[in-house]
Input
Amino acid sequence: MSSTQIQEERYLDIINQFAVGLLNQSTIKETLWSVIDNVVSKLDFYDCAIYLLDEDKEHLIQVASQAYKDKEPRNTNATFIKMGTGIVGKVAQEKQSRITNDTSQSEDYITDDQWRFSEITVPIIHENELIGIIDSEHPEKDFFQPIHLNILTTIASMVAIKVVQARHLENLAAREKSFDLIYSSTNDLIFLMEVEPNDSFRCVSVNRAFLELTNKKRGDVVGKTIDDIWDAERSATIKSYYREAIETKKPITYQIKFRTGNNIVIVETKVTPVFDHRGRCTNLSGISRDITTAEAVRSELGYEREKYQTLFSKANDAIFILKDDLIIECNDRTTEIFGRDREGLIGYAPHELSPQVQPDGKTSDRRMDQDNFQWVHTKKDGSYFTADVTLSRYHFKNEEYTQAIVRDVSERIKAEEVLRASEKRYRTIFENSLDGIYKSTPEGRFVEVSPALVAMLGYDSEEELLSINIKKDLYFKEEDRFKHSNQYRLKKKNGDEIWVEDHGFYQYDGEGKVIFHQGILRDVTAKNQKQMELENLLNMTSDQNKRLQNFAHIVSHNIRSHSANLTSLVSFMEMTKDEAEKQKMFQMLKSSTGQLEETIMNLNEIITVNQNLNKPIEQRNLMEEVEKTLQILNDEILESGVKIAVDIPEDLVLPIIPAYLDSILLNLLSNAIKYRRSEVKSEIKIQAKAIQGKVQIEISDNGMGIDMDAHGDKIFGMYKTFHQNEDARGFGLYITKNQIETMKGKILVDSKVNRGTTFTVYFNEER
Output
């Protein structure tokens, strides 16, 4: 044989080896690695690479390659070649094999790791569909011969068949795995029935879900007939559906109910008949689904439809359905609001039930893109009404519909207009009122204040007043706010006091909790001052009136007594002839005249006190005033041996009428000396202290004392005496009390016979 024949026979033997080798491969990966290994080793090629077309059929992916120098086939980093690019891409696009004898002369050649001068490229094709490329390069020019092309083409054909078979096997395995997974994990019930003679159906297989839902064991179902599995009634029903599927040669769907435990279950089953090549039904495959919940939902949906229909027909708003901008359905309320019957609504467009132009100046026939808007409609009688409109678009059976809900808001708009007018009037009053208007929170913050209130409280701006803490910055004492029902003190920005009259009310939320306090504040400082002045004047007038009445009584009583006594004495003197008797009468007349003069002087002193009611008040140091009085009484103190103890703060100052204080101290101290007890060492204590702005003076002695039970209500009366002293006139305490009260003070007495007396004088009592 020639060398060519020998070579051809060798190549045929190689192809046979390739074919045998491919038979032993089961996966695509094994097949491809076997090919490149044999190509390199048996054909003495320098290298070999196989590319497979990707799913998008846009790129070729290198999945296996081997060079002559490699001992083992090697995995490579995935190389992507775009269809039509380079020699490999061009061959793939054209599906035509190619030998490139000198790559340096080919513009399609793309250099790999190094330049090789020969390249053979063969497409892997199955039923005219490109699967991939077998490619080999060689460093020598003109290395590849036609015989090489024939061998690679044959090998490519075998590879194509093997790849397609492997892919089928892989897909089948994947489907079987997927089916097994679905069969075992699905919640649907899957079963296979074998059709036996004599109208008998025997279970061949069931999945887990079937056993769980029916609450049966596999041995109770597999290998058993329908009659064994179900009760007679259900068995008969199921067999009738099976026969119908076999007769019609079509799948059939049916529903059955059965009890499992304490529950009633509804399942929907689809049974498909399976026929052999002779047309005989051999099996029935079935899949069932628990639709208990779905049935409940359908029932609920029916209830919801009925409820929606009730709402639609009984709603207080007009509801109508639009299709192609025409009303096709409406509820009863629509006819009421529009004042039209159904015939006057169905088939009309909304703009035909509206004025030509809306309040915004635009025509009513425009299409509204908003879902919520306000619109003016026309009633049958021609009157207008304003409505809030809500549109909802939806699709049903591939048709678009619009639901419109129309609410007549004419009355609401009128009410809003009235409210706006009321608010405008309120704002006018708020801005121009002479009284302060406010709104505040329970936490003590203003949320709204009028200009008058800002000015009343001496702040520079509304913002400044809104920023303050009411409890801290406005109240002198927070409790003042609650001591008075509607009048209390406030502190202005500069610290001055202002009296206000508050007419307010609380605003509550839905739970009865106070959220705001609103009211009007009126400045009544000047009014209160005038009121106090008036009250002082009335008190003074009343006091003077009482003093006048008392004075008139004294004058009437005392002068009348002396006048009657003098008249009697004069009559006696005129009647008697005895000179001695007359002389006696004259002495009595002289005594009565002296008593009358004393009475007139006492009355004059009372008049002097009353006339000095408005004498100016002066600040005097009490200690100095007491020392001055003690100096006046110094001779009497020394003569009587009375011990004087003084306890008065040196800085104690009080506002008084100086002459009155001198008289008061002189009267009280001289009385304490005068009415001492001879059998004991006499002591007089003078104490004073300031208590909350008031001055309290106590003058105590251990003298004779007064029987309070017998004389307690007469102590400060005129001409009231309680001891047998010859010089006691009963006039000093009366004058002292009047002087103290003239200075808005008061005097109290506590006394016990033979124990002593304490007079307590309070100054500033009413100031």
Q: What stands out?
A: The mean pLDDT is 82. The chain is about 40% helix and 25% strand. The CA atoms of residues 192 and 285 lie 5 Å apart. The first strand starts at residue 47 and ends at 53.
